[in-house]
Every structure is written in structure tokens, then in C-alpha cells.
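The protein record filed here:
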Amino acid sequence: MECITETKGDFLVVQVKGRMDAVTAPDFEKRCAEAIDAGKTSLVIDLGGLEYISSAGLRGILATAKKLKACQGRIAFANLSGMVQEVFAISGFTAMFSVYKSVEEATGA
């Protein structure tokens, strides 16, 4: 899994590529936690390059969202497609979180 971060206005965009599973999810969670600890409290997670997400990946996302909630932060997701979109829908994440078609839509909302 690869995580690329970029600041767009008030948002930190985290572009995730590859697979988010039991091996890679802790790295995602750690990188997001470091960004939050550094004062980045508005995150957009770009999942356009994510090919696979497991329950461990979902747990990493929930942990990140919980950490953001504790500091009145916010999280949104962009570019979901294929299996990742299905997993988000089945797990109820599309009802719990803001999901946008693009990063531009997410950062403009």
C-alpha cells in the first residue's frame, strides 16, 4: 500500500493505492494519526487507487475517524469504485461517512 499526502486548502488529502489489509492498515492508521497530531483535522481519503480493503482496513478507518472526532475534526472519502465501494456500502460506511465522487467535490463541500 502506498499513501501520498497533499494539502489542498484546509484539507489534508491522503491518496491510498494498492491493498489495505492486516499488514498495511496499521501504516495507514499511523500516518493519519501523525497528521492529526500535527494539527491536520480535516482529512479527505482518496480511495481511487485502492484495489482491496479488508476488515482490518475498515478498522483503521474507524480508528482514524474516532481520533478526528475527539478533536472536532472531520473525515470524508472520495473516488470509491468497484469492490471498495461495495465493501463501504455493505459495511454501512457510506451511511456513516461523507462520500464524494471526487477529491475536488470533497474539498469544496
Observations:
- The first strand starts at residue 2 and ends at 8.
